[in-house]
Specification:
Length: about 120
């Protein structure tokens, strides 16, 4: 499998500072920001800064440090946003079947209400 990264995707533009975002957390290799169209009271996106399309690309080509940082940031944001007690959902959509809109790896962190069944369709 070879992966092609589109440098003009919207999250690449956010990372380059060409588009603003509401930042929640940042490290050397990751950024967390609020989703522009929240699907729940808390809806944060966590992205690696490296050019990875999706989770399988990330696992195949990212360094151990990038992978550790990404997972650590997801966990930190969950606690920072106060979601630990009542629960939350972490989702990463990929490709056509996953109905991924933005072709830069991102984890949706959703919480703040009962989120319903995992899949509706
Ligand atoms: P996907 O369907 O690719 O998993 O999710 C992409 C997410 O990115 C959507 O929830 C959408 O609302 C969010 N999004 C799209 N454009 C922007 C933007 O310019 N800024 C922010 N903060 N979120 C965006």
């Amino acid at each position: 499998m070879s992966y092609t990264y589109d440098e003009e995707n919207i999250f690449a533009k956010i990372l380059r500072g060409e588009i603003p975002c509401t930042k929640v957390a940042e490290t050397e290799s990751c950024l967390a920001f609020r989703d522009i169209n929240p699907a729940a009271p808390v809806h944060v996106l966590v992205i690696p800064k490296g050019p990875y399309v999706n989770m399988d690309h990330f696992g195949a080509e990212a360094s151990d440090a990038e992978i550790a940082d990404f997972h650590r940031m997801i966990s930190d944001v969950i606690r920072q946003e106060g979601l630990s007690e009542d629960g939350y959902r972490v989702i990463s959509n990929a490709g056509v079947n996953g109905m991924q809109e933005v072709p830069h790896l991102h984890a949706h962190i959703l919480g703040g209400r009962i989120l319903g069944p995992l899949l509706s369709a």
